[in-house]
Structures
1.
Amino acid sequence: MAKKKQPQMSSKAEQKLKNKIIEDKTFGLKNKKKSSKVAKYVQQVQQQVNQAGNRKAMKQEEERKKRLEQKKKEEEKRKTELKEIFKPVQIQQKVPFGVDPKTILCAYFKAGTCQKGNRCKFSHDLNIERKTEKIDLYTDYRSNTGGKKKKNNKDDETMENWDQSKLESVIDKKFGKDNSQKPTEIVCKYFLEAIETKKYGFFWECPNGGSKCKYRHCLPPGYVLKKKETEEERRAREEAEKENQITLEEFLETEYINFKY
């Protein structure tokens, strides 16, 4: 048979009972208000009696907080497990030859799993894909026309309407001392070095005067870059050459047979 639930005491009755207990415990003490020691003792009794009534409520509140905290931890654990289960498979990102990795968005960062932070060689800017495009090694980006000469109306001018000063300025412009700094069709050696060392990109700056460099910062049309040979590839090539190499005796024997027949 279930135990009968006792009716809860009202707050007014509870306080009245507390005052009665305090009065009983301090009964017979003289000079309650005059003696500091007695006053301190009375204060301690009051605190003990008041706290005794609130202990149960405090314990219930602590248990409620613990339950909420435990529930929160379990929810976070469940979310983490679901994230791990449905996490897409990440493949190792490859950088195209001649492209700056900082112009490519990190796939792990996009998925929210990159742990490298500032040490990551790829970009963590979500807008980088809109800001950049794949760099073209056959275009000189210093000119707005993509390295092509823009036709000018001055090209159609003739010498017929020129005066003496105009003629002198044209000659000086063509053969003067400043002519050595004019753009040429020679490809910049620093540009080629940057491609070989995989440093060339939209943020690369030429050591030879930056954008004022007179040499071309693009490859000639139709030119195919040769991939730099790695150590493993070099060893494999040398081994293949050794296998196909014949000795002097074998060569002489072959020549003798050819000569004989």
2.
Amino acid sequence: MMTPSLQIGRNDVVVEVDGRRFNDREMVIRNLEPGRHIVSIYTFDRHNGWKGIFGRETRKEYLFNTTMMVKPRQHIDIVINPFW
């Protein structure tokens, strides 16, 4: 099983793996089955002038968005540099 480790340097960064949302600063996702997985990392752009649902001015600003093929017993690290 894959054990991706995600280190997040900003509080407002959201990570989605196959539609499951995570927003902790550091996380480990265990027992992710081998195969194709969708990984999205984004933050919210709160000052773009567009009013979304419920009048909030937010929009997803993608930092990373891809499909990954995970092999059996593969370990993957994703590190987001907080100084970008």
3.
Amino acid sequence: MRGLTISTKSKNVAKIIGIIITAIIGALLAIYFFSSTTFNVQGLSINLKATPALTGKTVISLPPVGSLSANTHIAPLEFNASLERIEADTIKEVLADSEGREKLISELTEPKLTFLVPFAWKQLALAAAGAVFLVILIWRTRFWASIVAGVGGAFMIGIFMLIAIYSYNLEAFNEPEYEGVISFAPEMITMGDDFLSQFDEVQTQTELVVENLYNLFGNIDNLPFLGNPGTDEDTVRLLLVSDLHSNPIGVGFINAVVNNFYADAIIDAGDLTDFGSPVEAQLANELKDIEVPYLFAPGNHDTPEIMDLINNMPNGTVLEGQVETIEDINIIGNADPLAYSSEVMNDELIRNRDLRRQIEELRLTAAELEEMVDIIVLHDPKFSTTLEGLANVVVTGHHHRHWIKNGENTVHINPGSTGSSGARGLYSETKVPYSAVLLYYQPGEGPIAADTIAYHPISGRFNVERTLLNR
């Protein structure tokens, strides 16, 4: 009889231990599969997720650039924060004044108040539900036993979350680990710090850019050297741009030139963004308001997502080997080989092979036309001189330096960087100007002239230079 009692007690103890283990597993599984939550912080859409881990780590993902991580707390949980979306209009309003900027920085740098507290409550509920569900499923326990299991699961996760909150150390990100493309450029973090610390200066400079643009265009009629190559009603004005690299001022620059120089179409030689991410693409969202045709030859920094963005614009067209016609001007172009991949190319031999293949594809397309091609567009000019004689004009980008070269049968034009080398051009000390070229083209004859328009952000100086071309 005594042996039977001991056996029964042993079974009960084993069952209790089994229920506890089951409750813990249920709580952890619920957290693992359902903890993902999206927060909106002043125009930034951030997805936060917790997963069981051996070390307390926070991983910040910036798709498709990569991620950075740091050991930020001592609880056995890993927090994953992913930037999913930037609401361009909202973020502009937030950053418009110092109070809004301070609020944004405060919410991003005080996780105890903005993220972890509401996030923790959700995890408690999930842990309780997961523990109850798995205990009932496996052990068929009574109601109160299941409730106790749920409370136990929630209590365990609650302890983990409290430890994480009160041990959280943001300074751990002073020495982060990098993964993905971002690992090639840790200085981007320093660039971000410089941008935030100098935002007032950047904003003042932005206003100065716009003001000077208006002053330039307001007095354009008083510049006699501009002449009037476009007075002939057959002459088409084509705005050539390239290498915006996510600089919002560059988009404003394009709009200003289109509206004030009366461009009939825009030809973009690529690199609209730095990393080709959808988040960056939103910075160029104003392009959708452009009312003239926008032809885009993707660059090595662009991606299929960026191509889709352009193709979805009312007047946007991605050049991928087809022939496009604008005002009786035939235009061909194709994407840089790297635009179809997010991989980083470090092999120069493979890169050169792909660029030569790109040139050959353009040659084949040009050969199919019964007449000479008016304009060929591609991003990297490395082998573009081999297109001499195949088109009246070859437009390239990539080098962030503008030039116009009169060849024997072809004019080679690079508009430089219309985005002043990208978002970093907002505050960098380099002297890369915002630049574009307005090409005057007469169908059936060829290019007549080109105006190189450049704004130097450091000196605040504008240049508008006329170049007469072969007719």
4.
Amino acid sequence: MMLNISIAEAKSKFSEIIARTIYAGERFIVRRRGKPVAAIVGIDDLRKIQLTNSSEDTGTLLAAAEAWADFKDLDRVIEDIYRSRRKSTDRKVTIE
């Protein structure tokens, strides 16, 4: 369960809130003028969130790789792109 606190309350009870987060596993949503602006969660919860986000990124990459694998004649398409670029003389290319 997430407990709602104001910024003023978070400031005045910061040590208590951190202790409750560490030892009781409580989570807090910090609100400014009634709108959520931040969260105070334990380090284990943060790691889980980061791991989930990382897994989603990996899943996206895997999906893209699978899509490329299913693409027919990919080698031919890539060679066509290179061939058309070699033939193109109107492109200004600067090599430093």
